[in-house]
Amino acid sequence: MKAVIQRVSKASVTIEGEKVADINSGLLILLGIVNDDTSEDIKWLSNKISNLRIFSDDDGVMNRSLLQSGGDAIVVSQFTLHASTKKGNRPSYMMAAKQYIAVPLYEAFVKQLEKDLGKSVQTGEFGADMKVELLNDGPVTIIIDTKDKK
């Protein structure tokens, strides 16, 4: 699994003119899944994101996690995170998991994140044409890949 985590002052997801997710302070998480992702990847990534200290404390130092800050989260499926651009100018998405594999893993990730945060997590809609709006706070953008846990 690969995640692009963006600390936001606000974020929303709109599908066909209808806003389906809307948060203020928190994280917008773009999530890409590959065929060999497992429940261990889900648990590790959810724990890492929940405890990632990227929110400011009272001294203005990034020393608080999403759990500590009380912020919200939106998770958006994003198969293009696994694009390969090695050959030519047209990206290949062969590494991205097929829908029948990706959907259950995506849903399991959302449930695990809700469990780790102790609150509901908003989402986009898997496979939909989504319009994602955000006001990146900082900006703070971090990429985490469960295949590279260094």
Question: Quick gist of this model?
Answer:
This protein is of the alpha/beta class and 150 residues long. It is built from three helices and eight strands; from the N terminus they run E-E-E-H-E-E-H-E-H-E-E.
Features:
150 residues; alpha/beta; D-tyrosyl-trna(Tyr) Deacylase, Chain: A; six-stranded mixed sheet; 3 helices; globular
Number of strands: 8
Integer average pLDDT: 96
Sheet with the most strands, sense and barrel status: 6 strands, mixed
Strand content: 35-45%
Output the radius of gyration. Answer: 15 Å
Low-confidence stretches: none
Reading the helices and strands in chain order gives EEEHEEHEHEE
Break the fold down into its secondary structure elements and pairings.
Blueprint: E1 2-15, E2 18-23, E3 26-32, H1 39-51, E4 55-56, E5 62-64, H2 66-69, E6 72-77, H3 99-117, E7 122-123, E8 130-145
Parallel strand pairs: 3-6, 6-7
Antiparallel strand pairs: 1-2, 1-3, 1-8, 4-5
Helix pairs in contact: 1-3
